[in-house]
Design brief:
Elements: E1 3-8, E2 13-19, E3 26-33, H1 37-47, E4 50-57, H2 69-82, E5 87-92, H3 96-106, H4 111-114, H5 120-136
Parallel strand pairs: 1-4, 4-5
Antiparallel strand pairs: 1-2, 2-3
């Protein structure tokens, strides 16, 4: 059964999460360098059945675009061209980093494991974006 993959785009790192085959649970997958994203997605989609890609759409609290919004819109356009057979969805990602940090604290993650430089926060944020998408379906 095909999975759904979520992308939390960052300027340096990008967090990825994926559903289980039944599309019930979202799990953190990987954190990669943003420059490697398209190559990673092409390789991943070649070996795994993926039916949809979900992008976290960053906005300000008032709903206005922030500095990352145009980058995400551009990535969506690139994904539409690279994967025309897949659904590409945008999901509001406000508060996902804060929720990811709270989740990691609640799970008992050590402070050094929560540090952004490890990339754990990025992939947990992607999982929260993906779980939000699943809840909307």
């Amino acid at each position: 059964m095909p999975r759904v993959l979520a992308i939390d785009l960052g300027t340096k790192r990008t967090g990825l999460a994926v559903t289980d085959p039944l599309k019930i649970l979202a799990s953190p997958l990987e954190t990669i360098e943003t420059g490697q994203l398209m190559a990673f997605l092409k390789a991943y989609c070649a070996k795994e059945e993926v039916e949809a890609l979900v992008l976290g759409l960053p906005t300000r609290l008032n709903g206005q675009d922030n500095e990352m919004t145009p980058r995400v819109i551009k990535l969506k356009e690139e994904l539409d061209k690279a994967f025309p057979e897949k659904k590409i969805a945008l999901v509001d990602e406000r508060f996902t980093s804060k929720m990811a940090m709270q989740s990691m604290i609640a799970m008992g993650s050590k402070k050094k494991d929560r540090r952004e430089k490890t990339g754990n926060l990025d992939k947990v944020s992607a999982a929260i974006i993906l779980q939000s998408y699943l809840a909307q379906q």
